[in-house]
Specification:
homotrimer; 3-stranded parallel β-sheet; 430 residues; uronate isomerase, domain 2, chain A
Chain lengths: 430, 430, 430
């Protein structure tokens, strides 16, 4: 009975058109062109590699898409239990009339060809969007992206700032910044001017968010211009920085970004807790991990200093979700944001979703984002989330609290869609 | 079937008269006098503020109780999903014949008036106690509380010691201590004498526990009197302390309290893990948060040094519950105590409750306390807990292990009521 | 319906013959000889002690097995809620036709006598193995174990190395190492030779794994021989080491063990996170606890340096399970291994098991080990795990994903049995 109820609620949630508030879609090539675009998603390459497929086989330069798929398919049996494998099968079924449980040596080639056929249709991208009920997709744009040649009303720009905060010591990054803005970031003032120019450009082109991923040991702090001046001089002179100097520079840039978010009424997405390149022999994008010893207390100064900036926060560690719930419950400018990466599996979404629904104001929860690189993944990923959400609404609200099904679905609609419009619609936190 | 079973067990648990082992009740004004006493509970003011209501609107000096409610009611829609909102609605239904799902502009005034009417009845406090089946309520008393003018057999004194441990550097605290005990705490010996006088007073007035809340980085240690002597001198001379000196003084006072707990056979409630004033612009009592990076290993020296003192321990972070389970399973003097504050929502209680029932001796678990400021909250808070407990007993014991329903309810009775009498009844740990 | 399905799957899992990949069985006395061997398991003595039974009563020298049982039985009522108590009752029912819920003053003596009778039968060990469907049991052997006098094809040797890594400063350990190998570990080279001799001996005698338990603050690192040379000299000279020197020595030995694991294609079981002797007044083996603040990031250098060594990893803290899932999903040489000690209760196994099944390649999960000291415990411990596994397969795979029951049981078979053969069968990680 509880299963049927959860299915009914999920079916209702499935009818709600979506805006995806975080993705890595390339708006110039949003949909896949071959099955290799799907199987090349880092989840499959890294899991296949983890299960024994050498990186060199997967990433050999010059292999055709078909060859890549041919190499990955035999390894899929080892990861058929994973929920990521489910996404793949669901895509194949929903989009390519696949009717088996798994891709095998015997069945993958016809599938490859059929997919190629469909993906070659001129309106494939629109077919995917329609079937997925997507009405908007947030991007992750390099800071020097010209943001031209696509509909920024649908593919919504988002200023991604990891490189600015953590790699300004690299001359290539500074050159790109100078090229994009006309300002050499050689002094704190010039750096600020350059960053301001980025914000102006992005906001002019319809950006709705600034975003960054952060390592577990990062702790934002206000830094005086005078403290960062000699560091920038050293950078320009090609002198390598001490860890302390690097941290000071990162903090200065980060804090300046928050100031511009305030000025431009732009939410600042914080994705907290990733250690980069932990497994350096891994496949592309399959090298990062995390250290659970991280706390939102590290963001205390930031959250207090910028009451007018909305911070949609994602945490990589499931263990930090309770802090996220509690900080969102107390700080007006903290919003819970999706289920990120290693936390994006039903076992963890379940508890994280339930705790948020029970203790965070319903207006401050962004239920889910796809994080996808290719459009086809929105459907199975949001479906996964909607099943968990439907179950939570069934058990905790309809059964547990006696809510009507309509009321429960309304709550679901809000976290799934409504809050995205509210939070990224340009309102200030206070 | 499992739902019906859980409901049956919960119904049984609901008949058990309660002793509430931790509250913030003021025994001179235990029940509410207007709806503002309910809506003024920090859960509602902080959630409403988090959802957008300015602190200044909520805490404007001089507004009437009715005006306060009028300002909060429109904001309640944003937090109607929270379990705290459920408490409020349940109170309104159970005590004031309210029959709607939410307080709205249209329905709150009649409710306000009806509640005022009921609360004005001379036996309102007794009505609440009776309906809530409360047979005793532990208090949280300032160290200089005279403990007079109320029935200490029902409203049981508890010596709260945060100010002594963490704010003895404030002259106002020292003056209150001197006034209460006749001893100026200018030397370690005098401080010890003063603390001893507090214990004597509290125990004479029927106190059953000493209690304190502790920040995540606190680590108790024995401190020599000689080490604390110059620090106390500096304090008296009005010299401000270094962080190291402050910590030494805190440790000295804390350890001395444990010694007096031992001497007086008083359990020492430790509430571990709160960072105070993290969000300083927040509403009253809505400013504190936590850092999940905390471990009970910090209490190793204490737990070994005082085998004869019972330590009922609460942890603020859900992530620390497994440590609490494990330390209670190993240390005879550690008892699990309730579900505190940010962990006091069904999603977290569920797992915390189940793990304790599965691995901690049944005699060493205090299931729940209300933490309430006004008597009306015992009913919905204990009901929330009893539903979770009933479900755990149904799934893990009756279905999972084949226990009879009676046996399961007996286990529930023990953690809900029996252990409170046992632990706070004056027995020693060993 | 979901309950019946879970029961059906569990029943299927129950028919799968087992290899237990980690135990503390003494192959010369594998089965129990009296009920005191069962009640003497540290779970019962430590829980009984935690619930109030003095250590001196439990561990009084010279008491008979029957007297020991007589002293423990009255205390069992206080821990009858624990899942560990369930193991005991299940053993008594399955092996000794016991039909009560609890051992009491009234019923224990006949049980004791009946058990003694059964255990005295010459084929008792074989009876237990048969009923438990055990086809192999991994041991935990002291490094100087001669490994003779038992069937190493059934009782599979495993080189346990805690003493070598953490206690080489003790002359008794060095003497045992010298006696076992003929090499005094007075220089790095000699120490390496001695360790190599241990590996040769163990591998010759059929060892399938090297194993160690590690404290939460341990962080492996490669150490130059030149750095460890003066430390070994000091050790030999009887000079006590500084904490830094001890850590360097531990790291050197540990890294050398990993090198030999690589050379011998031996998996290296890491059991991460235990603090020893936290409660020194506790009963034997009931003194250890943990600090949840530990991360697999501490093993970054090790995991990258030894891609060819398989590391089956157990974590003591439930909070680290997500890291374990994520590191296993990324690193080819990390395998999830069982549910260890304080995490070995259904409430934690449930979430840990589900998250692993959802995100770790199915070939890289070792579902469970018994950790037992006496053979009788395999049955109830594996049963506990199989119930959780059956439930997870039912809910997440058959109901949640539409898998057939057979397919779900196949996944269960793999984590319960198949992967043990694969991982410990001598294959290399890459």
């Amino acid at each position: 009975m509880s299963n049927l109820l959860a299915q009914r609620l999920t079916a209702q949630l499935n009818t709600i058109p979506l805006i995806d508030p975080h993705s890595h879609i390339n708006p110039h090539r949003a949909a896949s062109t071959t099955l290799a675009d799907l199987l090349g998603y880092h989840y499959y390459t890294e899991l296949a590699h983890s299960a024994g497929l050498p990186r060199e086989r997967i990433e050999e330069p010059g292999i055709t898409p078909k060859e890549k798929v041919a190499r990955l398919v035999p390894q899929l049996a080892t990861i058929a239990n994973t929920v990521q494998h489910d996404w793949l099968i669901e895509i194949c079924r929903e989009f390519f009339d696949f009717d088996a449980d798994a891709l095998t040596a015997a069945n993958w080639e016809p599938l490859y060809d059929r997919a190629l056929d469909r993906m070659s249709q001129s309106d494939w991208e629109q077919q995917v969007l329609r079937k997925s009920q997507l009405e908007g997709v947030f991007l992750t744009n390099d800071f020097d992206d010209p943001l031209t040649g696509f509909d920024t009303g649908f593919y919504i720009p988002c200023l991604r700032t990891d490189e600015l905060v953590f790699h300004l010591g690299k001359s290539e990054v500074r050159q790109r910044l100078a090229a994009a803005t006309g300002h050499e970031p050689g002094t704190p003032a010039a750096l600020r001017t350059a960053l301001g120019a980025l914000f102006a450009h992005f906001v002019n082109r319809g950006a709705r968010a600034c975003a960054i991923s952060l390592p577990p040991d990062f702790e934002p702090a206000a830094i005086a211009q005078s403290a960062v001046e000699p560091i920038l001089k050293a950078v320009v002179a090609g002198i390598s920085l001490s860890p302390d100097e690097s941290r000071t520079l990162s903090r200065f840039v980060f804090w300046t970004l928050a100031e511009f978010c305030s000025e431009h009424h732009l939410p600042f997405d914080l994705m907290i807790g990733v250690n980069r390149r932990v497994y350096e022999a891994g496949v592309s994008q399959g090298q990062d991990l995390f250290d659970g010893r991280c706390s939102l207390i590290q963001y205390r100064a930031l959250l207090n200093a910028f009451p007018q900036v909305v911070f949609p926060i994602s945490v990589l560690s499931h263990g930090m979700n309770q802090e996220l719930v509690s900080y969102s419950w107390i700080f007006p400018n903290v919003v819970t944001n999706g289920h990120w990466w290693y936390s994006n599996i039903p076992a963890y979404i379940d508890l994280d979703c339930r705790s948020r629904l029970q203790a965070v104001p319903q207006t401050k929860q962004i239920g889910y984002y796809s994080d996808m690189y290719k459009l086809e993944f929105a459907l199975p990923k949001f479906n996964m989330y909607r099943r968990v959400l439907g179950r939570a609404l069934a058990d905790d609200f309809v059964i547990g609290r006696g809510w009507s099904e309509n009321r429960a679905v309304d709550l679901g609609r809000r976290v799934l869609r409504g809050n995205i419009e509210r939070v990224f619609g340009g309102e200030r936190a206070v």
